[in-house]
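Data availability (excerpt). The following record was deposited with the supplementary files.
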Amino acid sequence: MNIEKLIHWLSSHHIEVLEDRTRADGARTITFTTALPYGELDGRHVWYPIVLFKDQTEVSRSEIEALLRHLWHGELEIPDDLPIV
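Predicted structure:
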């Protein structure tokens, strides 16, 4: 999935970009965050970074699945493709 489409889709599920950095060699690290959803964990946040090589614009389905599991959103169904709105 295209990274910009992914960012848009994730934000619609309250998963936001905490930090977006590009290193001198062109590699890009995007750190996503969301609040944990349950009672005693309410208000605490979790983070997950995705690293893209220079000029990489696509993220693999397995990477997206790992992100969703780590951020406690494994119930979400990953769309095949989304337009940027």
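Summary of structural features: The two ends are 15 Å apart (CA to CA).
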